[in-house]
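SEQUENCE-TO-STRUCTURE ENTRY
===========================
Question of interest: how does this chain fold, as expressed in backbone structure tokens?
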Amino acid sequence: MKALLLSVVGGLIFGASVPPCKWSPMAYLGLALLLIANFEPIRWEQRTLCAILWGLAASVLPIAFSVRIAKIQGATYPVDFGTCVVTLAPFFLLALVVGIVASVSGKLWQTGFWRGFGWIFGVSVLGIIAERASFVLPMPVQLAITQTPLRFSVLPLTSIFGIWFASWFVWFVAALIAEMVASVKVNWVGIGIALLAILASQLVLMRAFGLHSDESRTLKVALVQNYTDNPLSMAAKVRNADIIVLPELALGQETESMRQALSETAAKTGALIVAGLAESDPPYNAAVLVSPGGKELLRHRKVHLFGAERWHFRKGSEVKAHGEIGIAICFDTVFPDVVRELVRQGAKIIAVPNTDPPSIGYLLHHLHAAFLPIRAIENEVAILKADLTGLSQAIEPDGDIVAEAPLGKPVVLETKLKVIREPATTPFTRFGDWFVYFCAIMAAVLLISGFAGRVRKNESRPVPEERAAVRDSQNFGQVASKGDDEPDGNGGAQGN
């Protein structure tokens, strides 16, 4: 009963950090309560129930806040069985991933396999491994999106470690809180490392401001959020923009007349246009970059398909940038590989044609939007997301959201955006997910050291009195038997 109560309360608290809620520190306390619940001597099925309750409780505040925001903005959304499933799916997946780590770490604590700082660090690296493994799920689970509001304290180090650092920090601080509560002792090593991580973030932030304060230029951009209106008609009204971005599949099926209309719109506006469309033979969810002269400069086919898209489209396999512009379509930005590869090829602006699926209160719009500032900081790249129904965003390389469209309204979001003059070369852009491999190595080291410690402990354990008596009698019998088999020294001499 105690474990279940801790799980429900922990889930409610954790939900206060999940977008659109912005109380990021609540993630540490909410996760810590689930870890503490798993310290209890409960069965595996009870641990599973704790994880499910925690995940469902974590959905309460995000859904409530999403509904409230949509109501304030006058946005409507469907409420049916399918929409409810899509809305709750991220939280069931969250319960699965977090629940596995919490259950395993709780069992390791109970058995004394890991304790103290070793347990804290072990939980944090197991958390990162579990999050990376979640890439095989319908939606990846990354606790990092709870830290998006902490742009100046936690996120700067994502330019070195990637999104994995923000997730690791959540796991680490939560495990630190849980361990100190369980042991009723302050863990100064863990506190020191957490404070050192924040200090390092500040140093990286100051260095970034120093390097790029005079190395940026300004572009005028326009994001077409057409909702139910004609996207090309809305784009044609834009003037003096450098680049215009339209939503995912905004132009529908690719035809000759559609290409002609797109070329005419580009010529009329004098801007580069990125627009989503559907290829038919073979079927791809694609987007094109068109010059003001109507020439197609770049075509990107969606690499990471979402949900039912896998039944209708083929998966794209090639990622290319054209000069300083790259394209990533919707779900592509939830994974780190596409944006990173585009920046490696010299992209300074990532255009994101986007259409988030319907969900209660537009919750999935908020969850997806939380990834993009992290993607920008990871690679020091500007991101332009044009969504069909809401939360179109213009994001600068430091993760600052300079413009954001409301929900459920047709609007052309026009703004000025700073872009770094030279292609970014952050450690994460260069070396990729190296921190995940580091966590895997550390987990292996901790597991091996834990097994070695158990072996040493068993060898040094005192033998119970009864077992000692049996062992001594056996040894005595072996000595007596050995003495009978050996010839007597004096008798042998007399026989000779």
In short: The first strand starts at residue 216 and ends at 225. Confidence is low (pLDDT under 50) at residues 485-496. Residues 2-210+446-453 form one domain.
